[in-house]
Sequence to fold (396 residues):
Amino acid sequence: MSTLRQLFLTHNAQTTAFPLLLEFKKAKGIYLYNSEGKAFMDLISGIGVSNLGHGNQHVVNAIKEQAEKYMHLMVYGEYVQAPQVKFAEKLASLLPVNLQSVYFTNSGAEAVEGALKLAKRFTGRRRIIACHNSYHGSTQGALSVMGNEEYKQAYRPLLPGVQFINFNNVDDLALITHETACVIIETIQGEAGIRVPDLAYMQALRAKCNETGTLLILDEIQAAFGRTGTLFGFEHFDIVPDILLLAKALGGGMPVGAFIASEHIMAALKDSPILGHITTFGGHPVCCAAGLAALDVLLDERLYDQVAEKEALFRSLLVHPAIKEIRGKGLMLAIELENFDLNKKIIDRCIANGVITDWFLHCSNSMRIAPPLIITHNEIEKACGVILEAIGFYCA
Fold:
């Protein structure tokens, strides 16, 4: 074991007893390179982050340019900082008229926390509805709206007043009442193994929230920025949320999240009390500069226009009797296998053969396929070849 790996195990807090311990020296495009120079295809984009791949030069240049001007100056919301303003303006220009006020955070989980506070503060209500098998982060508030008891039990008590409904079940929408502050839901469920809701369900959800005065929070932390074939996932369903959550690909590889609402709703955080939500590093100028540069590349190159075609290629190539189902939208896919043990063996063999994939937190028998949007047709064919070889090795 290398010295660096030993130090990692000794001094870096561990999240499992069996980390992958892959050690990389550099990353470029869709590849990560270890100390021996071996290339590994990143088929999961660092879990939905690297939509443009790694080391995009436009993003790197923006980071360098901003770092030379200034980095942290003041807690969020006090100073007028050009990277924050320009990034928020660009996002607002791409969103509906009721999503024009952007609050930048450090991560997706922090965006969730801010959005839940905002919903309760604006409505004056305390009840929250979330979905079974949902994932919104690991902080206390975000964990409270996670729909998997296995990951929550050790940390109770959590937020009171949270009720869970079944995703994509119209009948359960009856639980949304005039006492509900908000419904927080992933536009497309991620850690549940990529579950795409029906159009009718999403429209009924929007209508029920309108009827009861409940704020609809759409978590697009994984689904936004072209990953599903449109810039934002909610565009597939012809609805608009009251609060939109973004992170992961938002920063172009740098840590930044956001919750976005109307100016009217967001104003609830300004008084009674003042500073209703604060963050020291949220909207860090270097992160915002990186995010704006990444968004410019995504729009200029229209990478989302190629997503449906690439999805179709994955689906046409990934054919094997052991594959029970392929779920998803765009380059946000799940390959369902018999069980976790088989899935883990196949994943490990793929990694050994230079293709990095993973499983899902709430759906361990499914394999994650979420490559950078820049992946080429030839690279898709190569990745599918490695996956099929691994499946065939264990399922001859």
Q: What stands out?
A: The mean pLDDT is 97. The first helix runs from residue 3 to 11.
